[in-house]
Amino acid sequence: EAAALVATDVEAAQLTRAQAKLAHLGLHDALTGLPNRRHLTSAMAAMLADATQTNPVAAIFIDLNRFKEVNDDYGHEAGDCVLREAARRIAEATRARADVVGRADVWDPPAGRLGGDEFVAALPGTDAGGAALVADRIRQSLLKPIAISPDLSLTISAAIGVAQATEPEEPEHLLRRA
């Protein structure tokens, strides 16, 4: 009887962990761990619903330059390494925004992967000047070499655009402007 109760508890714990893992995978990119397009769009929609002149929402669109060449020249494993490291650097640069944004608790990390080599940082409570500072931090962090293996380091760059919403709008519109 005791063994049956323990077995039931173990099964329940395993099921709970599996459900939590599936929920996380449904909202996060499997390669980078960042929020995926669906989660990003949902979070941005909530932020943008409250956008005002005094509570703007900024979006930073990041598109890695010549990423296809990395995959073609060095293979998909190297490309995956570049994406993981770019995601880490983008998330780190956006988390370090306490000097720019007072609402860091809204969504952490405020960056997500749209897909391919495209990323977005959504910054609630951030004006255009603050978003430009974060965009520059992202740009600077991406310019540092990425170690693929002991004998291979790659340097990447990115096209980065910034847009700001001062009234409610759809995430797609803000991203298109960025």
Folded structure, characterized:
The protein is of the alpha+beta class and 178 residues long. The protein contains six helices and six strands. It has helices at 2-27, 37-49, 67-74, 76-95, 128-142, 171-177; strands spanning 57-64, 111-115, 118-124, 146-149, 152-154, 158-165. A hairpin with a 2-residue loop joins strand 2 (111-115) and strand 3 (118-124). Helix 3 runs antiparallel to helix 4 and helix 4 runs antiparallel to helix 5. The longest helix has 26 residues, at 2-27. The protein is flat, with a radius of gyration of 19 Å.
The helix-and-strand class reads alpha+beta
Please tell me the overall pLDDT: 87
What's the total helix number? 6
User: Segments where pLDDT lies below 50 for 5+ residues?
Assistant: 97-106
Number of strands: 6
Please give the order of strands in the largest beta sheet.
Answer: 2-3-1-6
Query: Biggest sheet, open or closed, and with what strands and sense?
Result: 4 strands, antiparallel
Proportion of residues in extended strands: 15-25%
Distance between the termini: 62 Å
Shape: flat
